[in-house]
From TrEMBL:
<dbReference type="InterPro" id="IPR014748">
    <property type="entry name" value="Enoyl-CoA_hydra_C"/>
</dbReference>
<dbReference type="InterPro" id="IPR029045">
    <property type="entry name" value="ClpP/crotonase-like_dom_sf"/>
</dbReference>
<dbReference type="Pfam" id="PF00378">
    <property type="entry name" value="ECH_1"/>
</dbReference>
<comment type="similarity">
    <text>Belongs to the enoyl-CoA hydratase/isomerase family.</text>
</comment>
<dbReference type="InterPro" id="IPR001753">
    <property type="entry name" value="Enoyl-CoA_hydra/iso"/>
</dbReference>
<feature type="compositionally biased region" description="Basic and acidic residues">
    <location>
        <begin position="254"/>
        <end position="264"/>
    </location>
</feature>
<dbReference type="InterPro" id="IPR051683">
    <property type="entry name" value="Enoyl-CoA_Hydratase/Isomerase"/>
</dbReference>
<feature type="region of interest" description="Disordered">
    <location>
        <begin position="243"/>
        <end position="264"/>
    </location>
</feature>
<protein>
    <submittedName>
        <fullName>Enoyl-CoA hydratase/isomerase family protein</fullName>
    </submittedName>
</protein>
Length: 264
């Protein structure tokens, strides 16, 4: 598929979804929101892609809704409002129910709605010069969906501070690591994409079917209490029984070779 605001690539079993509006700090306009839905769906449906890396071209990772478009385009804000009210916000992997592992590789500034992609990724890497901020309240908007989701990853106090202070404070990559927002800080920043590809290749060596079921079980736990989460996880566990990968994994281990996983 062709995209105007994104770059979509494959590197072996790793699919890359790259924000590509560097002149607007990768802010999401209406076209990007539409293209994100198509790009996530394209990579999720490609049987050769086992892991998706979400990255960005230019000095910023993602700065959320294009405020200039909202302020000057008569339909921009109304369309965005309608999508939120209808809960039709399929521009991130979580909202589309993507069950392939997703790694976010954050460079530069990540602001506002850009935090969606941090909250919804399975693993987050940040360049050492990355910074996080939530300017919603500074432009008269409510901080809600992405910051609520971030509370699954880090202490509520830190999320509240970011949401209430707005654009007047930025969280460094190191502080984000200390608080659990990201799992690794990459230094020098120029190594970010190489580090993301290396990590994605490690993940991609595992059974694709087991990876997807594991992701569904673990993320699904946030929707339930402990007992219900364990029951749902058990259903994912038994649901994989009889899959060819369950026999291939032990056989490859015994024969000291790389597994030949089934591509669904």
């Amino acid at each position: 598929m062709n995209y105007e605001t994104l770059a979509v690539e494959r590197r072996g079993h790793v699919g890359w979804l790259v924000f590509d509006r560097p002149d607007r700090r990768n802010a999401m306009n209406n076209l990007m929101r539409d293209e994100l839905r198509r790009a996530w769906t394209e990579l999720a449906g490609d049987p050769e892609v086992r892991v998706i890396v979400n990255a960005a071209n230019g000095p910023a990772f993602q700065t959320g809704a294009d405020v200039l478009e909202l302020a000057t385009d008569g339909i921009g804000m109304e369309r965005y409002r309608a999508s939120v009210e209808a809960w039709d916000m399929g521009f991130t992997s979580w909202q589309l129910g993507i069950d392939k592992p997703v790694i976010a590789a954050v460079n530069g500034i990540c602001a506002g709605g850009g935090l969606h992609f941090v909250a919804d990724a399975d693993i987050v890497l940040a360049a050492s010069d990355a910074a996080f901020t939530d300017p919603h309240v500074s432009v008269g908007q409510v901080s809600a969906i992405e910051t609520i989701a971030l509370m699954r990853k880090m202490p509520a106090e830190a999320v509240l501070r970011m949401a209430l202070v707005g654009r007047y404070e930025r969280m460094s990559a190191r502080r984000a690591y200390e608080l659990g927002m990201v799992s690794e800080v990459v230094d020098p920043p120029e190594r970010l994409r190489d580090a993301a590809q290396e990590l994605a290749e490690k993940v991609a060596r595992n059974s694709p079917a087991a990876l997807r079921a594991t992701k569904r079980a673990l993320w699904g736990a946030f929707e339930h209490g402990l007992t219900e989460a364990c029951k749902a996880g058990a259903a994912e566990l038994t649901g994989l029984w009889g899959h060819p990968d369950q026999a291939e994994g032990p056989a490859a281990f015994a024969e000291k070779r790389e597994p030949r996983w089934k591509t669904d």
